[in-house]
UniProtKB/TrEMBL annotation:
Gene3D superfamilies: Periplasmic binding protein-like II. This is ABC-type glycerol-3-phosphate transport system, substrate-binding protein. Keywords: Signal. It comes from the Bacteria. PANTHER family: ARABINOSE-BINDING PROTEIN-RELATED, DIACETYLCHITOBIOSE BINDING PROTEIN DASA. It comes from Nonomuraea solani. Residues 1-22 form the signal peptide.
Amino acid sequence: MNLHRRGTTAMITMALASLLVAACGTSPDGSRSGGGGSQTTLQIWDFSAEQVKFHKDVAAQFNKEHPNIKVEWRSITQADYMKTLPLAFQSNQAPDMFYWNATGLAQLMDQKWIRPLSPDGTVPADFTKRWPDGSFLEGINMQDGKTYGFPFSENLYWGSGYMFLNKEVFQQAGLDVNNPPKTWTDLKNACAQIKSKTKAECIAAPTKGVDMQRIWFGLISSVSTDEFFDFKTGKFDLTEPSQVKTFGFIQELKKAGYLAPGTNDKNFSRQQFAANQAGIFFDGTWMPSVWASQGFSSDKYVVAPRVDPDEGRTGAAGRGYDDNKYWVSSQTKNADAAWTFIQWMTDPDGYFVQQYYKNAFGTLSYVDNQKMVSDPALKQIMKIGGAPGYRVQLPVPLLKCPDIAKSKAYVNAMARNPEGEWEAMSEALVSGQSLATTGAAIVKQRQAALEEELKKEAAAGLKVSMDCYTFPDWEYTKDYTSDMYKG
């Protein structure tokens, strides 16, 4: 996301400023309004619109158990959130805790947005044992021995790359929803039948900005890697043959009229699917709760694996260590209250967890998901995601080169035109050009930035190089295991 975008109109700026004042709830002297003497007000921000009621219930229950702490949990639309949160930090009005997964630990620390989870920076063993071994790593959620983050969503089932089929549309088209398309050709054949026999669109595929990731991740993950960087070759890969071929297939679908027309965002496309106006939608683990909030229950659709190229699956979705999503703000004056809430929130048997699963919001990293998940759609997602080779552990440069924890080269390379890949895709989809052509500039820019910065850091004494980012022995369909790292 571009956190430094300029040229915002005065009207938008004023609206965001008003939102900040309303959200921050400060008293005339600038202190947090606690609403009652010694009561501390803990402000948490995110952009999960479908979880508003859940968060309200969570806040009420936490306050019941901790009367001296009042939680104000606010959700802002995602597009506004990506602008509002940086503005809040710039104006020294940031919340006490916030949700953020657009960048990782290194950039958050560089921006001075975060502080350790606990007041003194250390966390007890009875906290970290809630997670699988290896969940807390220097450079991922720890820095200089202090813990800054914790894995929230688990990384086997959670993520994009699932195909949702609308039962009513499939029935109208004379298709068997329990025999879903398995290959690219199957998908085109199903679309042809939906287009000829129903009034519905075949695929509700948002193509507006980053929302294009829905269909992109639903296809590319079966071809190579769902990252814009290939850890096998050590190169930004948008213009590589596998990526170009996959995007070419999306262009084929569009040309044939199998993608819903218009440049739509994810919300429009989701509603289109839920209104039986489209037969197929590609997205992630979070969708059962999104559709439930729209009154579209899981008995009205089926979850299927993503489709593979006709020649068979040659790639997999990646599993990483980047599921640290809730952070404590560097501007908080309520570090003790934040730490109390985090421990309560991550209690595997606590209220937050029980209600999270009751509402089918997804899968958590500190919980036995096989035991807790009851929603049939989520159960199917777990069955699909847990199949061997559907998601694989990505190589981690940090585990190969510990000094990567101090490097800013990759973060800075990704910060160059953050939405560049999606802009290249949008241009190619509109113009009909090859992705190899529209994506060339962003790939060249990122690769040069990464290599040049690594050379500077190495000259300054860090043990880093392009070798840290290159794993030639990795196969896209297999986990890169700990024994494969060279010491």
